[in-house]
Structures are given as C-alpha cells and as structure tokens.
Design a protein that fits this description.
single chain, alpha+beta, Macrophage Migration Inhibitory Factor, 2 domains, 4-stranded mixed sheet, two-stranded antiparallel ribbon, 12 strands
Length: 208
C-alpha cells in the first residue's frame, strides 16, 4: 500500500511530466532495481498496490503571493499514505525517491526549484482503518496480500536461497547475511528481513 497524491498548480505539469514523474516513483518504490533480490511475484503485487495521482489546483498562493504561470517552476505538495506501522521506517527512503522524481522533471525543464517549494508529508493509517479492497485491515494483512504469490511458491518448495543470503519469509526478498542484517532465528532456521516491519509481522504470525 503506497498511495501518493501530487498536488500542483493548474497547468504547471504536462501529461508527459506526470508520466515521467510517476514512472520514476514506481520504479524506485517497488524495488525494481534490476537484480534478483526481490521475487518478481512480489514486485508485481507491489506495483499493483502503488498508486500515483496528480491533482491540479487553481488559485495557488504562497505567503509571497500567487504562483506565476505555466512555464514557471511549480510548487509541489506531495502526500504519501501508508500503514502507520511502516511510516517511520519508510519515510527517509521514500522521500528520497520522490525528490529524485521531482528533480528529473525539473532537469527536463531547466527549472531551479526555490527553497520551500517541495513539501512531502507521510501519513500513517492505523490498523483497522486500512481499507484493503474496502475491508478493514491491518498492516500485516497488507503484507500478506503483497506477498501472496511468493508465499504460495514458498509453500510449494519452489524458492531457493543462494549461499550467503537469507530469505525474508514475509515478502521474499533476499538479504545479505551480514552483521548489520535484520535477522531472527525461528524453529532452527535463520531468517533475514528487508525491514523491521517485515520482522515484526513475522514475529506476530507464528503466535496467531
């Protein structure tokens, strides 16, 4: 679940600008880095659960007055909605990719963005207030839906873990077995996790 709304002054971003920015965001946030550390089944579900929308606003004003005209650098206000359990851990990485996407469009136009003209807010939604397919859900249920295809392959014995890597049993990501890795041993098996949120979800799962 990654719901991203990008607000901008009416007429300031063309359809091509929006397509470039959305593609840059989705590529970064779904982990599609061209390697094999994330199973394609999980990436496919992540892409399906990532939504980027653009909203135009007329009469955009700042404390210095109204925004100029098409062709001028547009101020941007980006709101990202994720499960509350993910928010703190995701914020730095996600904001970095959003900045990168904005800079890509700025560079295409030769825009020099003034300080204070890009704002990103991360909003966390509490368990029970996440409407996955319209049903009240938890962050763990979102992870389960995200990894549904991977976990079917895991149960069928189709997953192989290369030497020196650990498997995140929640999403299928392969994690390097290093001292800095997020790990946990359960029933004699050592697991690695891409994030603390996946580890915490796994800890809750065996007892449920």
């Amino acid at each position: 679940m990654n719901l991203i709304e990008i607000r901008h002054p009416a007429g300031s971003l063309s359809p091509d600008d929006q397509a470039v920015m959305a593609a840059e965001i989705v590529t970064g946030l779904t982990g599609d880095t061209g390697d094999d550390t994330v199973p394609e089944s999980t990436l496919r579900r992540a892409r399906a659960m990532t939504h980027v929308a653009f909203t135009e606003h007329s009469g955009w004003h700042t404390g210095d007055g109204s925004w100029g005209a098409p062709g001028d650098v547009p101020p941007l206000w980006i709101t990202v909605t994720v499960p509350e359990a993910w928010r703190d851990e995701m914020a730095r990485h996600e904001m970095g990719w959003l900045r990168r996407a904005v800079r890509r469009v700025d560079a295409d136009h030769g825009w020099q963005r003034p300080d204070g003209w890009l704002w990103i807010t991360m909003i966390g939604v509490a368990d029970g207030s996440i409407g996955l397919d319209g049903k009240a859900s938890t962050a763990d249920q979102v992870v389960a839906e995200l990894s549904r295809e991977f976990r079917a392959d895991l149960d069928a014995g189709k997953i192989e873990v290369p030497e020196g890597m650990l498997l995140d049993p929640m999403c299928g990501m392969l994690v390097k077995d290093t001292p800095r890795a997020i790990t946990l041993e359960h029933d004699g098996t050592r697991y690695g996790f891409c994030a603390h949120s996946c580890r915490d979800a796994f800890v809750r799962q065996p007892a449920s």
